[in-house]
Amino acid sequence: MTVLGPGSTRADLLSPEAVADPYPLLAELRQHDPVHWSERYRSWFVTRYADVDAALRDPRFSSDRIAPYRRARLDGPDTDPSVRAAFGVLEDWMVFKDPPDHTRLRRLLSRAFTPRAVERIRPRVAQTAAELLDELGPEADLIGEYAYPLTSSVVAELLGVPRADRHRFKDWSDRITGLVFGGMGDPDRHADGADGMAELTAYLADLVDGHEGDDLLTALIRARDEGDSLTHDEVVATGVLLLFAGHETTTNLIGNGILALLRHPSEAPDAAGTVDELLRWDGPAKTIARLMATDVELGGRTLRTGERVFLCPAAANRDPAVFADPDRFDVSRRPGRQLGFGIGLHYCLGAPLARLETSIAIPAALRRFPAMRLRDEPLSWHSVLLSRGLHHLPVHTR
Ligand code: HEM
Question: Which Pfam families match (predicted)?
Answer without folding.
Answer: p450
